[in-house]
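Sample A.
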Amino acid sequence: MKTTRIVYASFAVALPAILVLASCGATAPEPGTPEASYIDLGCAKCHGPAREGQRSGPPLVKIEDHWDEEGLMQYMRDPKTFVEANPRLSYMAEKYPIAMPAFANTDEEQLRQLAVFILEG
């Protein structure tokens, strides 16, 4: 039941963004770029196409105050562990309906490029 709710919520969040991008003639980022990873891994669905945040995920701006590259990569690999151990992240997780997915099997270099892209936001 919870999985179904998450799938429906993801679709409801992603569809308007896709329609807006399609209607304004936006082009997809070049494959293999951090921008493409941000979209391909589903980050834009919850955090917004410009990392501005959505009802389903917090903004990814000025996060360098709380994260460095290695820490962000570790978080993306196993967010549940970080949320359980960190009151700030636990509070954030309660505010949003969709849990951060784990990217445990994502290529190291792709994850590193994504972390740098997010931190440079």
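Sample B.
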Amino acid sequence: MHVRRSTVAKRQTLSANARRALVIALINQGRIHSQSDLVELLDDEGIDVTQATASRDLDEVGAVRVRDENGVMRYQLLDPASEQRTRMNRVSDELVLSMTSSGNMVVIKTPAGGAQLLASALDRAAANGRLATLIGTIAGDDTVLAISKSANGGKSLSQQLTNFINGNQKSISKGVR
């Protein structure tokens, strides 16, 4: 049960960096199970954010939702050099059951619950320029829709996604004509 503190009298406005530092601290304390948890915990600190802002903050700090040792879903930070991140990259091909392209789209089927994890990784790679032809993704529970910048780039994007998922980073950042 979540109990709100009544002692917060004044609302705060923090810079994005300061707010994200607080998000990291809350994640490290193991207190964030969902985006709504983050919104509520920040509200308890006197900081108003929307769920969209909470989602962006979690993405920016590199938080992923995983099961802890007790089987409870919570957000955790993954250090890029950590063994857990390396393990995630190795098993990421297990997240893809099938991939089908058409026009400028690629439909990726995943096991139940895997789509958002895969889509988040693909969106981060696109934002960092590692998947230069990817505009973005839409994720459900077990399906990711990846969209290419090129009107007929679905087939090429499918190959780039396969290379990315299998850890072959060469040719991924080459543009589609």
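B remarks: Helices lie at 16-28, 35-44, 51-60, 83-91, 115-127, 154-165. The longest helix spans residues 16-28.
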